[in-house]
Amino acid sequence: MQAMDASSSCTTTEPCLHDEEGHGGSYCRYATSSSSTTMTEPLLLPDTIMAANGDDKGERLHISDDTAHRISTDPWYQVGFVLATSVNSAYVLAYSGSIMVPLGWIGGTCGLILGAGISMYANALVAGLHEVGGKRHIRYRDLAGHIYGRKMYALTWALQYVNLFMSNTGFIILAGQALKVNRWIPPTISSERAGDEFVLCAHMLTMLQHFRDDGILKLPYCIALSGFVCALFAFGIPYLSDLSIWLGFSTAFSLIYIVTAIVLSLRDGITTPARDYSIPGSDSTKAFGAIGAVATLLIVYNTGMLPEIQATLRPPVVKNMEKALWFQFTVGSSLIYAVTFTGYWAYGNSTSSYLLNSVKGPSLIKAVANLSAFLQTVISLHIFASPMYEFLDTKYGSRHGGPFAVHNIVFRVAVRGGYLAVNTLVAAMLPFIGDFMSLMGALSVLPLTFVLANHMYLTVKRHKLSALQKCWHWLNVVGFSVLSVVAAVAALRFIVLDSSNYHFFADL
Q1: Could you tell me which residues come within 8 angstroms of residue 145 by beta carbon, excluding any fewer than 6 positions away?
Q2: pTM of the predicted model, to two decimals?
Q3: pLDDT over 80 (residue 212)
Q4: What pLDDT does residue 182 have?
Q5: What is the CA radius of gyration of the chain?
Q6: Contact (CB, 8 A) for 353 and 97
Q7: Which of 123, 239, 471, 484 is most buried, by CB atoms within 10 Å?
Q8: Are 105 and 310 in contact (CB under 8 A)?
Q9: For residue 69, which of 412, 365, 489, 443 has the smallest C-alpha distance?
């Protein structure tokens, strides 16, 4: 296939000109083949930055637009569902315990609402820079490299890799938790009573009897099975854009476990005695727990890979991304609030880090909810793993034949399977989902989504910003940098404590 869609290519129609305001900025007027109109809005990038974007000789950093994946193909509502799916993954079942319990009603509620506003703002900044310099930047590291140069390109890729790896590890832990808490034991089907065509189904249902709380199948084995299923899905879905029909399934799965958790929590909350909403622990535990919860609530709405998702959009990419973001922060966020607040209201500070562990109800209904959480997690993991897959496919994969040519399938099995095997091993060794969420927010989401977004916007638009606007962006840069360091220390502390309380490959 072609490395780039024609709709995403950039054709320079005029040489770079100096900014009319005399600020020494440069821009190119460019046209895309997807439109008959010529874009004339200047996209500024100061000359001093452009000169610094290369090595010591002043040579510009060359950033390749080459990709083995599809771009510029998806409508805004499909990308909106990708974003809504990513924020309404089974992680939402952890927010009652990981955010509300350490922060309480006031801190947790205000934090989630403020976090949504701050996240919407930061994501809008990144989306608005997608075409800076007169070309599309289909990867976060490409955008950072274009603005800052080679070192920032490498640092951004390292931060994003940490974000993707930890996100995927957390998804596999969640999937394993969903399998482990499934207490439904299906009836054994005898092969004598079933026809030959149902013998395989009978054996599969009999195997499901091992998903019980009697220690037969412990969490590490559930995590291993989850990683295997995620790998199978990764082998069959070559590109992020190929998720189109699976996004419908993902939405259905999300609604099943969210509605189930809400209804059963409401029932338990009505029938149980008064709950304790005080923040548990010693003063130091409360302080570190609050810091970790703040880092967690800031990852609720963010992916850390917005340019990669935006790359799949049809032009006009900035306006379409704004529509997708509004969909995420309205429709998508409403479900987060509903399940998080209901779970905390029903169980107080005893809320589990996986809400379906706390609810009581019919075994069959809980089994369906957990199965839905498991399947939706498999789809969500594929979204967050797609930048890594794109990198591996582009750098090492073959461009010959279709995505389902034998050699391309073998390549995906070897490379994606190996990557997910490492994820699964780490997930089984350290199955502390709340700690992973806090550390992921501290080390990657905070720097990428808040620190870097504000500084990139400040760098590119500095000649157009007032002094007050510059102070605002610098306040964000410094504030979130400090929060990132403090939150990382808090998360590492909890991981060390949990590791001392539990051995590796613990059955939590």
Answers
A1: 53, 61, 63, 152, 153, 156
A2: 0.75
A3: no
A4: 65
A5: 24
A6: yes
A7: 123
A8: no
A9: 412
